[in-house]
Specification:
Helix content is about 40%, strand content about 15%. The protein has a single domain, classed as Rossmann fold, CATH 3.40.50.1820. The protein is globular and about 50 Å long.
Length: about 300
């Protein structure tokens, strides 16, 4: 695990593969995960191109600074967790570390981060223009205020109370600590991985260990208070690079119907590939078909710059 200094924070990252290829890959994990969640993908992709994976600020081995909500007073070293922060982190990493054209691949909230980073790189690419984005079961963020019309009517009544409660650090920390237990992690994974394939001790451990660090509850507090942030369709409406979707057929959290709607209505989307029987993390649950698709997308991205 390498370390990169960014905005006075230590960021963990890894690289596999030769560095002389014209195009690189950057893997961006989802909520609560880290670089190791790409355990079955990074080695395979590295045979075709230099393949990087990064720990978003607040996760994995990266620093876990205190969360500051939008209307809270700024404190030393505190950050406002959100897609502008993480998107800027990824874009800066591409410019300062990768320094070549890049394909961004993100799972869950990592997909929204990838889209935000692609916009930043579109505006100021330096040596690292974004060739394409691959979204793997991208987070639809149904709890965002802008999604209220898609929610049951009773949700409008309880939202003020919900927002007031999750602001409380004692409550968000208690919720996090209750969830950050191996038994709970395994139960959640059985929802996320419907086939239960690859739910092994190594997966439990790689997700559990970062939660035991002192600052681990802070990114959780920041994220569950993101009621007004970027949504994937809005970011894709003005994106000029192609986007490929990979989706688990049985994702219990991000409906595949919405992915199909995106594919039908957003001009930047080039393809939608469905992984049978897989859930929210098909790259780990069903890595072989996902890797085959990623290698095809990588070849397209590499040829785009020639």
């Amino acid at each position: 695990m390498a370390c990169w200094e960014w905005n006075d924070h230590r960021i963990g990252w890894t690289r596999m593969g030769e560095t002389n290829a014209p195009c690189a890959v950057l893997l961006i994990h989802g909520f609560g995960a880290n670089t190791e969640h790409w355990r079955f993908n990074q080695p395979v992709l590295a045979e075709a191109a230099p393949t990087y994976a990064i720990d978003l600020l607040g996760f994995g081995s990266s620093d876990q600074p205190k969360a500051r909500l939008k209307d809270e007073q700024e404190m030393a070293s505190s950050v406002h967790y959100g897609f502008d922060l993480w998107g800027q982190q990824v874009a800066d990493f591409c410019r300062e570390v990768i320094k070549r054209p890049v394909i961004l691949i993100g799972n869950s909230i990592g997909g929204v981060v990838a889209l935000r980073a692609a916009k930043f790189l579109e505006e100021s690419p330096h040596a690292s223009p974004c060739r394409s984005v691959v979204l793997i079961d991208c987070a639809q963020r149904l709890m965002d205020d802008k999604q209220l019309k898609t929610q049951p009517a009773w949700m409008a009544w309880i939202r003020p109370l919900l927002k007031a409660m999750v602001r409380q650090r004692w409550l968000s920390t208690a919720l996090f600590r209750n969830a950050a237990r191996p038994g709970v992690i395994r139960r959640v994974l059985k929802q996320a991985y419907p086939s239960e394939h690859n739910i092994d001790d190594a997966l439990i451990e790689l997700l559990y260990q970062p939660t035991q660090r002192e600052g681990a509850p802070e990114a959780f507090r920041g994220f569950i208070n993101l009621f007004d942030d970027h949504l994937a369709p809005e970011l894709m409406q003005t994106l000029t690079v192609p986007v490929d979707l990979i989706w688990g057929e049985k994702d219990p959290w991000e409906p595949i119907a919405e992915a199909r709607h995106w594919a039908e209505t957003l001009a930047c989307i080039r393809s939608l590939s469905v992984i049978p029987e897989a859930g929210h993390c098909p790259h780990d649950e069903a890595p072989d078909p996902v890797n085959s698709l990623l290698l095809k997308h990588l070849a397209l991205g590499a040829s785009a710059g020639t």
